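Lay summary

Proteins are chains of building blocks that fold into shapes. Our project writes down both the chain and a compact code for its shape. Here are two examples, one after the other.
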Amino acid sequence: MTPNASSLATSLVQSVDWLAVAPPTIAALAGLAVLVADLFLPERRKHLLGWGAIAGLALAALALLPLLDGDRSTFCLTSGAHACSYTADTFALVIQFLVLGGALLTALLSFSSLDDLKLPAGEFWFLLLSSAAGAALLPASRDLATLVIALEVASLPAFALVGLRRGDRLSSEAALKFFLSSVTATAVMLLGVSFVYAATGSLHLSRIADALTHVDPRLDTLAQAGAVLTLVGFAFKTAAVPFHFWVPDTYVGAPVPVAAYLSVVGKAVGFSGLILVTVLAFPSYADVWGPAVAVLAALTMTAGNAAALRQRPERSFSAVRLLAWSSVAQAGYLLVPIAAAGYADSGQDASRAIGSTVAYALMYAVVNLGAFAVAALVARTSPANRLTDYRGLYAARPAAALALGFFLLCLAGLPPGVIGLFAKVTVFSAAVDAGLGWLAVVMALNVVVALYYYLQWTTVLFRAPEPAAEPEPVPAAGPAITRPRAVPLTAAIALTAAAGIALSGAPQLVLRFASSTLL
């Protein structure tokens, strides 16, 4: 080998920072371990797979602790301008904590569902861990290729999770609708990515941002089209209107824990990707995507709340449908600070706006997972999961009713759910500070509209049950709840309730934590 060739080969070789990539790697390895173990465990011991999945997710979350000291990057270019494909900065760590914590709570919710719905344990835990690994990879991705791969690694197992109930028409239909919409989003996004690459000659976000400031005039239209198509692809993933049509049917057809996972972890994946491409890759097009995201936010929150208002309490799965439409409305609130970042005068202002989105996402993750946990509990005795099935819940399960009431008040932004009120005020302030007064007014009106259906559901919990339709009471401490497979479900409700109460006592800690997520 010639000296020049040897020097070139040496410059292209780099070591991998395994500590930086540990969280998604551990989740992926845990998924493979669960899949292999499933081949050898007898049926009566399949529950051990769930505990193994929980241990893997907990270990992946603990792997975040050594990364708190500072930014770490790997898979970097060895020549020219410094650019890396993976960066474990504060933003990535916060979103990874949200994703892995959400997956861990989903695993706790899933124990009873696996038995009740007769889902295959090995496949379920493998798919959940695989999706969590992709979701943990995405916020640390710093090039478009890694972003798309991480997004698909998070999404593809989710399709299978939705359709895992064999022979169930609703489940198959939900999985197909989710799959088709996601494939369409990916196709549109890949077309946009190819346009951006053709115009800039790079896939790294930082280099794309630099190249777009002096793009060849002949390629300017191509670059703009690429940016728009890339953002449209992420709009599908975030369930922003008009790309939200898959949400209600997918949530209804999926097992309740999977619907909870999609509402929190799936949303976190979409929004973190949207933040990365807008703020890091396309800041020079902020005058285009800022107004577009603002309009999407207004449409999304309005359509979600309007559809939630129309839910009939006696309709099958109306409780899950209401949570589905509520998640669409919440997506509109999450889009507001991203739009505000497009109007920011400085990078610091943009980072502050993004911190508002992250703070709201943390609040939403805790209380929404808690609401789905109670829905999973009710579904064990009332599989139709109608809103009317929650009437008299306080008489049968007082602790669960109080927890669900608290979660709904948090989502509504009413005391004692102080964290919900604080998060909404933070998002509202981001819109006002950016000069988006009209969007702040739209948000305020939507918050008032949402109060109706959140409070309506809350009051149902404490009404006297109807004598003719009263189910057999199953107290919170009764046999159905203390059986080993139901203990994790109770733990999930307790954990989310405790987290919500703690955050309501010190809401400023969330904003301070999220505001440190400087990009």
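And here is the second example, written the same way.
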Amino acid sequence: MPSGRTRALYRLRALRRSSLLIAFALGSLLVGLTPLFGAASPAPGAPAPRPAPVPFEQQTAMQAPHHPVVPANALEPAAPVLDRTGWTASASDEETAGENGRAANVLDGSTATIWHSKWSGTPAPLPHGITVDMHRTAVVSALVYQPRSDWGNGRIGEYAVNLSTDGLSWGSPVATGTLADDGSAKTLGFAPQGARFVRLTALTEAGGRGPWTSAAEINLLGDPGTPAATVDLPRTGWTASASDEEATGENGRAANVLDGEASTIWHSRWSGTAAPLPHSITVDMHRTAEVSALVYQPRQDYGNGRAGAYTVTTSTDGSSFGAPVASGTWRDDDTVKTATFTRTASARFVRLTVTTEAGARGPWTSAAEIRLSGPASPAAHGSWGRITGFPLVPVATAALPGDKLLAWSAYAVDRFGGSNGYTQTAILDLRTGRVTQRRIDNTGHDMFCPGIAMLADGRVLVTGGSNAEKASIYDPAADEWSATTSMNIARGYQAMTLLSTGEAFVLGGSWSGGGGDRAGEVWSPDTRTWRRLPGVPATAALTADPAGPYRADNHMWLHATSGGRVLQLGPSRQMNWISTAGGGSLAPAGARADSPDAMNGNAVAYDVGKLLTLGGATAYENAPATRRAYTVGFDGSGRVEAARTGDMGHARAFGNSVVLPDGKVAVFGGQARPVPFSDATSVLTPELWDPATGKFTPLASMAVPRNYHSVANLLPDGRVFSGGGGLCGACATNHADGAVFTPPYLLNADGTPKARPAITGGVPARVAAGASLTVATEGTVASFVLMRAAAATHSTDNDQRRVPLVSAPAGAGSHTVSVPADKGVVLPGTYMLFALDAQGVPSTAKFVTVH
């Protein structure tokens, strides 16, 4: 790095070139808010009085008048910060001549001192690495990197994190990605595992200012309570008993922890003379199973009885319980807690013993739900890859040809608010894992909370949001953004879909843009203008949300069919047929069976004329989510039939669902009670729905909660990207990362990849609807399917569509494949063509545009 006058110029230029964000002290990630209790406590165990609801217009806004304040638990770290006592740090190189830039400075607790790569004389070239030695083995789940606070030189751009138990063998990175060029603390997460040494390697400088790397502080986070490679055990036939339970003043029986309802609880005896701590509850599985974790969900109404210090023990006979397999102290909040066992136990009985109440409010213990987890089998439950860091929270994503994933947030990488006229974007290269960042200014559009439609020519149309009337288009072939004509009606949280005509339809969206009905309108790719549809009012598709249209017309589930028609099948319980011809028209299509409104659930087209709806809640937030799922089918006559299918194992809203090439549907993340910017009641167990049985089965547990502002997308290799969540500024629920899930259909029992068929030729870049292809293949092929390239945001992805194809053998290694002629079945646009074997194992897809 230059010195003297030249160095000063570098500093000045860096400050001029970057609009530096205020650096967030690491302490802002660590400070939680104490629970809000009055001076007088409620009667022990009795429900605390609920505060009177505040009218929406009187609520305190966060960054914009669209969301209430961040809940207290959102300001607490998702995992404990490890004690740095005795730690040391070393670096690949460090500056000691021109300044005190020693590696040890990252552990001294002062952001004023830094580690800096060597810059005096001849600068050491990138990459630069710094290694923390904890001098003991600990479970580690994240590295917290605090950039220097004085100016930007040396901020890390592209990075990799590696772990080691001996400082010699490092293996593949556990996390990679690209960091934003600002001064905020960055949490680089990965699946928790034991390590002694943690190495952060900087591959580039975030601002391209020179071959330098710097860091003010480095911290490590411990076990967040989500074990790797585990899966929920089925609770059928289980029973629960407790050392004591409240049966007089309330229904606080132990059995409530197994009923699947967070509103019912086990509570220790409090009427008369309260039973003193410790209290214990024992789950009897009535069969011996391998158990590796206990999941504890606190009560949701108020804090009395939340478990603090605890131990977990196991038994095969219910009499002899051995040494604890887990112990610790849980925080006083309402988030789901996991006790990860030190070793997998073969047991029938699992006992949770609580020795302190987390908030020291009294001698009470309570629990809403208890679940147990066992080791996951890859062939049955799939597996998760390493976590990839993004330079922003991926609030919206779109799958692109060339194995790319487009993502964007808002005007800022970690927060939203106002109408700033620009958007932070990123592209993940699925082949290399590299993430690149770009700010888009030329469209004058802050694309936070938009509607999205994948156009017939493969471009991505993005409408409304923070700049509520704007519309922008991304062209993946040119990697360019451009503006198109603004909508007639300003909108945010609206729904969009492409039509069979090649036009784009939009409806609803009262989140931004003022009052009034958000009736439908259509964008023409030929004229690049919007046409009003006065005959398609949004009022007919509203939910009964207590916040009114502001929430009631959000995130509609739209499915385009033949002749420019659209089936609106949710989240309102009332379904509607929409015609987009002329001024448009709308006709009722019946109720979605016995389903209530299901805001922040979603719908997925898993076959031609067949959709699955999953989860949601009767209100946008602060209402219990549902476990219900429904199938919705329609035929050429327009008759719609809805029926309840099997329930999910977990109630969830804010989750994301993805249809797989074999027709099964995977659902990821969500909350049992939706609250924006909170990770309370997180569901960490994905589930897989099988249309052949109508049942859901659990998949391997997630390492990171994915709730409000999370996404999921099918990838061209048959895997699924799941990421995001948060966008709430200086909070601990910002998840600027994602991970790839490998479904069970790709894995053998030992976790190795299954042999899969391959498409080797015969797939043109463009094909007409109704055409036939002669596709060259390798391996055994039983069927073909088209999967539409899709875009997701706010739990909704109206672009998803699975179209099974008619095919026949055409000689050795060759098949004739027919594309449907009906553009209501195969909408114009970009698709992934998969070949599948008889067991449903998919090939890697070939991209093709159907026109």
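What can we say about the second shape? DSSP finds four helices and 54 strands in the chain.
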